Amino acid sequence: MRKDTPSQKAKKIIGEIVYITLATVSKDGVPWNTPLWSAHDKDYNFYFGSPKNTQHAKNIRANGKGFVVIYDSRIPEGEGEGVYITATVKELTRVGEVKEAIKVMYKSKAKDVSTDKFLGKSILRAYKVIPKKVWINDAERRDELYIDFRISVKLK
């Protein structure tokens, strides 16, 4: 049986887990962590919608930095795998950008979703997470303990 490469494992987790956990930091250096539903495009950029007054939205506008974890916790202890991503995160403010986000997030129903839902006076905004560096975890068992480490992977 062929064993998946670390990159294949990362892509599989991304393909199966729809919730990401996004860590951001305020301009004052206060960390904030938020679980979010997201969708990704073929280049592994992630898109999500969120109210513009949330703490993570404020942090994104303040500095555009984020760290994403996508963890597959459905499997037994010691076998869990996750994808870890340093990223640039941005609020989408142009109609074309929001249209692209809608296509990714809503797929076949995209034609029914107006960009007005994420622009202007709407409380919601669309966001894009652009990966910079990606890892997957692996582990070894030593002295009855699991020792976790990271392996750098390429998604594209």
Précis, in short:
The protein is built from three helices and eight strands. With 156 residues, it is of the alpha+beta class.
Percentage of residues assigned to helices: 10-25%
- CATH architecture term: Roll
User: How would you characterize the largest beta sheet?
Assistant: 8 strands, antiparallel
CATH topology name: Pnp Oxidase, Chain A
The geometry reads as: globular
Percentage of residues in DSSP E strands: 35-45%
> Which CATH class is shown?
Mainly Beta
Order of helices and strands: HEEEEHEEHEE
Distinct helical segment count = 3
Q: What attributes does this structure have?
A:
single chain; 156 residues; alpha+beta; Pnp Oxidase, Chain A; eight-stranded antiparallel sheet; 21% helix; globular
Please describe what this structure looks like.
This protein is an alpha+beta fold. It has one domain: Pnp Oxidase, Chain A, CATH 2.30.110.10. The chain is built from 3 helices and 8 strands. It has helices spanning 6-16, 55-63, 95-106, and strands spanning 19-25, 31-37, 39-40, 46-51, 65-72, 81-91, 124-142, 145-153. Strands 1, 2, 3, 4, 5, 6, 7 and 8 form an 8-stranded antiparallel sheet that branches. β3 (39-40) and β4 (46-51) form a beta hairpin.
What is this structure's SSE topology?
Blueprint: H1 6-16, E1 19-25, E2 31-37, E3 39-40, E4 46-51, H2 55-63, E5 65-72, E6 81-91, H3 95-106, E7 124-142, E8 145-153
Antiparallel strand pairs: 1-2, 1-5, 3-4, 4-7, 5-6, 6-7, 7-8
